Amino acid sequence: MIRVGEAIVVEGRYDKAALSTVVDTVILETNGFGIFSDREKLDLLRRLAEKRGLIVLTDSDGGGLLIRSFLKSAIDPALVKHAYIPDVPGKERRKSRPGKEGKLGVEGMSGEVLLTCLRRAGATIEGENAPPREKPMTKAELYALGLSGRPDSAVRRARVKRALDLPENLTANALLDVLNVLVTREELIKLLDSIEEI
Question: Which of 8, 42, 82, 173 is the most interior residue, by most CB within 10 Å?
Fold first, then answer.
């Protein structure tokens, strides 16, 4: 598994599952065309792009290209890299028949192909072209900070999301991924202290 400096955005959960077996980074989903009307998610993608850069990795079919085009126009192009998968005829295992265009999507690509696509896009890969990142915060640290596993954890997470202007529907795991991009441990502790004073 390689560590990638940029956050990556894909179309759906199966794409995310396939990609997460080969890269260690924040991976967010557009929920297909849902990104067109999800202002909170789009704002989050913009913030991640500003903080770490963003790689767009969509299917090579018409739908994927439409989502890619939308993101190109909605996020500063200087902060975005585009990874393209090859046109490979076929269908994903979970599907009973091929998609409308008969091509494999991101979820149908091998790990090697996905890594090749990311490298061609200019992904910042730790050990190859990027220095090591700070060790990410863990679920255990979220627990220690009272953001998970406690009776009031949901309330505390909601306050953190509001303070950082994050989508309210982020799960605890997704919040951890986003926190690891947007704030340091020290910044999170200060934020929690300021929230407690209110």
Answer: 8
Query: Quick check: 58 and 28 in contact, CB under 8 A?
Result: no
Tokens 């077996």 locate to: 21
The structure's pTM equals: 0.76
CB 55 within 8 A of CB 4: yes
- How would you write the pLDDT of the chain (198 residues) with one tens digit per residue? 899 999 999 999 999 999 999 999 999 999 999 999 999 999 999 999 999 999 999 998 888 889 999 999 999 999 999 998 888 888 778 877 777 787 888 999 999 999 999 998 889 988 776 666 677 889 999 999 999 999 999 999 999 988 887 777 777 887 887 888 778 888 899 999 998 765
Both structure tokens of 73:
């126009």
Q: In the chain, which ranges are continuous DSSP H helix? A: 13-20, 39-52, 62-74, 111-120, 139-144, 153-163, 172-182, 185-197
> What count of other Cβ atoms lies within 10 Å of the Cβ of residue 169?
10
Q: What amino acid is encoded at 163 in this protein? A: A
C-beta of residue 60 within 8 angstroms of C-beta of residue 103: yes
Q: Say how many C-beta atoms besides its own lie within 10 A of residue 147's C-beta.
A: 24
Residue showing tokens 């790689």: 55
| Residue 192, burial from CB neighbour count under 10 angstroms (0-12, 13-18, 19+) | middle
What's the token pair of residue 95? 């599907």
